[in-house]
């Protein structure tokens, strides 16, 4: 398969993801209005082993924070922090009270890669994400979401991925978008698509790769997760 064909395939995959997301929102709105009749009819969604992890996370409350933009990926960290803060201050809750998943998909996905990937491929990521390093105004050379030094100059307000992970938040990483970014990186650098894709996956933050972030979002709702969209 040549690069041109692979590029077309990857772009179609991403656009399909966007379409599914829009459709998912529409279905979600319909379901919210028809929730009681649906339950009364005895409908139960099918279960799949790929989604079983969603039911294994401990917690009395379930939240899925969905992101698809760089700004959304940053703001989601603040949302997760605020949820945890409210759990403690208003509800006197314990860390185990929340099963919380933060999904990095579409154009927020590169925040799931470590500093080594940003040092090597930051120019490519930035060409798509358009969130420059506030210090230089240029393409970041580190994962901005893992540094607290930028404070309010970035939408995460100094809240970092590592800080949120320490609270027990689980990260879902879009595999389809990882494949897309690997292809764009290969095209821009003359590298090998498959090798770069494997490099991204082996240099990711602690988390779980899901087939597509949009799929994880819809499956999470079937497992009783409240959906919070950031960005």
The CATH class turns out to be Alpha Beta
**Could you state the CATH homologous superfamily?**
DsrEFH-like
**Overall pLDDT, averaged?**
87
Can you list the strand order of the major beta sheet? 4-3-2-1-5
Corresponding CATH architecture: 3-Layer(aba) Sandwich
Largest sheet: 5 strands, parallel
- Total of DSSP H or I helical runs spanning 4+ residues: 9
Please give a quick description of this structure.
The protein is of the alpha/beta class and 231 residues long. It is 51% helix and 12% strand. It has a single domain, classed as Hypothetical Protein Ychn, Chain: A (3-Layer(aba) Sandwich).
Characterization of this structure:
- There is one protein chain.
- Helices cover 51% and strands 12% of the residues.
- Helix 1 (3-33) packs parallel to helix 9 (213-222) and helix 7 (175-189) crosses helix 8 (193-202).
- Residues 1-5 and 8-38 have low confidence and may be disordered.
- Strand 1, helix 4 and strand 2 form a beta-alpha-beta unit.
- The radius of gyration is 18 Å and the shape is globular.
- It has a single domain (3-28, 48-230), classed as DsrEFH-like (Hypothetical Protein Ychn, Chain: A, 3-Layer(aba) Sandwich).
- With 231 residues, it is an alpha/beta fold.
């Amino acid at each position: 398969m040549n690069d041109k064909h692979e590029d077309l395939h990857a772009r179609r995959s991403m656009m399909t993801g966007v379409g599914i997301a829009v459709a998912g929102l529409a279905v979600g709105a319909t379901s919210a209005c028809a929730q009681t009749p649906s339950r009364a009819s005895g409908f139960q969604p099918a279960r799949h082993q790929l989604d079983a992890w969603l039911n294994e996370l401990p917690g009395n409350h379930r939240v899925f924070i969905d992101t698809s933009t760089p700004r959304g990926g940053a703001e989601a960290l603040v949302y997760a922090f605020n949820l945890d803060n409210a759990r403690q201050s208003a509800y006197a809750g314990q860390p185990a009270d929340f099963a919380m998943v933060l999904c990095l998909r579409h154009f927020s996905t590169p925040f799931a890669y470590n500093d080594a990937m940003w040092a090597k491929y930051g120019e490519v990521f930035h060409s798509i994400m358009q969130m420059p390093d506030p210090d230089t105004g240029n393409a970041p050379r580190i994962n901005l979401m893992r540094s607290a030094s930028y404070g309010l100059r970035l939408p995460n307000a100094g809240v970092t991925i590592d800080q949120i992970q320490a609270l027990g938040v689980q990260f879902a990483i879009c595999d389809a978008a990882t494949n897309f970014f690997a292809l764009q990186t290969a095209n821009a650098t003359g590298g090998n698509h498959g090798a770069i894709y494997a490099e991204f996956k082996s240099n990711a933050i602690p988390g779980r790769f899901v087939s597509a972030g949009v799929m994880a979002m819809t499956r999470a709702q079937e497992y009783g997760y409240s959906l919070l969209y950031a960005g």
